[in-house]
Fold this protein.
Amino acid sequence: MALDPAEIRSRLEAVQADVVRWRRHLHAHPEVSFHERETAAFVFQTLQQFDGLQLTRPTENSVVARLVGAQPGPVVALRADIDALPITEENEIDFVSRNVGAMHACGHDAHTAMLLGAVKVLSTLRDSLVGELRFVFQPAEELPPGGAQPLCDSGAIDGVDAVVGAHVWTPLPVGAVAVKAGPMMASSDTFELVIRGRGGHAAQPHMGVDCVVVAAQAIVNLQQVVSRNADPLKPLVLSITKMHAGTTNNVIPDVAELAGTVRSFDPEQRQQVPGMMERVLRGVTQAHGAEYDLRYQFGYRPVINDARITGWVQEALLAEFGPDAVLSPEPSMGGEDFSAYQTKAPGTFFLIGAGNAAKGMAYPHHNSRFNIDENALRIGLTAEVHTALHLLEKLRQAEH
Ligand code: NI
């Protein structure tokens, strides 16, 4: 029953070349969110070559592989996102994107390849597994409403006791991994705002209501939602990312259109933001005789790492990589739909260092020159396999 560490190591070693090859194939053939048809087919066909899996396609462009061990026990899910971004790649590499206008600029090619490698290794250990491992290949992480929620709704995560996700991360040097309990990624909500005045001649502003000036005041006053209304101990971002009004020099326009995003780690605070924005907008527009229309959309929930599961993942990483390599990450105000799974099961989301400035691999995520140090693949694969096995073990002990 006990798995021989040396044996696992040699199986991990044996799959390295496959993982690099799969990652390069995926990198050369990226597909943007909600269009991952070929990617999902590639994942499915690759998984078909491994023994002992139950494969399903619960939602469009997703693939779920279940590895049910010889004896019943806890269920651990591992998730990889598979989608690319609408970016034209500017790297000069052999496996550069062949789909113009699409690029794996966030490393989801690496996530997919690493998880395929983990399945290949773990599927050879099926006879000694107690419990079930579930591998979730998820489309559309980059584009809300995302691919995670439909997978949860489909029942693909039902019965899961712990869920784990990982992200390669170029701001972190290759060789490091980073994991932390508590808030990890922020909620990402969006809004559209229209300010209506009454247009007219630019030389006679008193004859109308200037939506441009009102919009400017709204922008400034909305910043006070963060600086004056929100608890300073609870991080909150409110960014106006678009403003558009008018067509020429001598006409005061009728409407100004704005848009933006709101980020928070605190579910309660997050719910309060639209109300605080309404209050500011009502006051500012009323003061100047204008009107407004705010459309607020809740996006991904915050990723909050479960303390117990995170502690076990940390144990597995420390045992494998040693204390110098296992860091505690700063939370990010970026969003991640991994949070959807955390409504179904406690889980943790951790980072795999993938940056290497000396090799020119330190461009930020979503940059047209983004690339990872492929040594991160070995580390990520190793982390996933050991995390999965350690969680099965710990959950089983906790049940008894
Ligand atoms: Ni990403």
